[in-house]
Amino acid sequence: MAIRLDVSGMLRRAVPTGPDAAALDALGPRLAAAVQAFEARVREGVLGFRDLEAQAGERARVLDWAATARRGLDDVVVLGIGGSALGAVCLRTALLPRDWNARSADQRDGRPRLHVLDNVDPRSVAGLLELLDLARTRVLVVSKSGSTAETMAQYLLLRDRLAAQGLSAREHLAFITDPDKGALRKVAAAEGIPAFEVPPNVGGRFSVLSPVGTVPAALFGLDVQALIDGAIAMRDRCTSAQLRENPALAFAALQWHAHETAGQGAHVLMPYSDALRDLGPWFVQLWAESLGKRTADGRHVGPTPIAAVGATDQHAQVQLFMEGPRDKTVTFVDVESHPDDLGIPHGDGAPADLAYLRGHTFGELLRTECRATAGALARGGRPTMTLRVSQVDAWHLGGLFMFFELATIYAAGLYGIDPLDQPGVELGKQLTYYQFGHPQWQGMREIWESLPASDPHWVL
Ligand SMILES: O=P(O)(O)OC[C@H]1O[C@](O)(CO)[C@@H](O)[C@@H]1O
Fold it and tell me: What residues form the catalytic site here (predicted)?
């Protein structure tokens, strides 16, 4: 079991824009400051995602509850958005067999389907409702704040549908939210709905290892302990302020350095694995919402994360990565072992010009393409890194989650911003509240009325 970070494709000996040994050494004081800033936030009590031991009691409660709650379910529905949805999607794709929801109950060993409703597009909401037998469904309402409009709208609808069928909210809902704040907490207390805690010092995009991820994982009988153990193993490996001894710090430092010194601020994450294809969108939210900020002195900073999947994106985005602007780094995730690997047959009558595939496996083709693409990019002077994971399982996924969460906080120290807020999303939310008549936001009228009018000339 191992996760290894190979950064050789970022360094000067591989690409002309990469740092040499002296440049890496010169980063020392900045890295030390980023590590100190991290520890200062932990001491302030606002940064708790590393402290998985502190959540052991709540985890035990989750496992206990799920052992009973999962009986007799056909469907589990997660209502959530952003950090309250992307982790569950990633867990499902990584740890349940492919096309889980399309399988018959037998093919799912009697376990439920998992739907993550992370939007308010009526087509998706209505489409899902048509599929569900609510009497055999558990709905997880996931919202750290307990007030996000999209999730609350979904909750109100599901609550209404349950009531219309005479189904008990206690039996069919569960909340995952802040221990004290927000509308969900009040409803849980008043109506006895099972509710699990996201610690106040664990923000939404850092919450996948809290009940936000562990409740859905436990309902599916996934190995929650291995997920947490993998995360703890990674955390304990990433403690040093020395670049060469702390892989998460090395990732953050080299991505930031590429941005700062060579304008390479588009950061691609490209797992060569369908199981890890939803790690990309989870990383995109983490990296974008944490790091895209205005600094205290008014500068606009931050990288632009991009999700890709190998080998699929070799036929879509790699052309851009190879010959487009020199503004990107590409981080590959290479999976060493594919337990369900398949040989590529070349039986009688197979075309002679496909004989080169004979004797190889699909897993071999995938891994070779990963190495070949990394090599091709390096030859073109494009910086790359590779995270090598032994296999995709709960332990390694926990490690990857922790790796990127730690790297995000280190990167924030280097960019000089606060990774824990997201002031840039507020105005759009407030204008929506104003339009919906929310009493607290009636002061937004002037701004709403000053918005540029749409130009009918361009409407087709
Ligand atoms: O879990 P909540 O509070 O519903 O928030 C959902 C998402 O909305 C944001 O607060 C803002 O986009 C994200 O940070 C968060 O993951």
Answer: 289, 315, 429
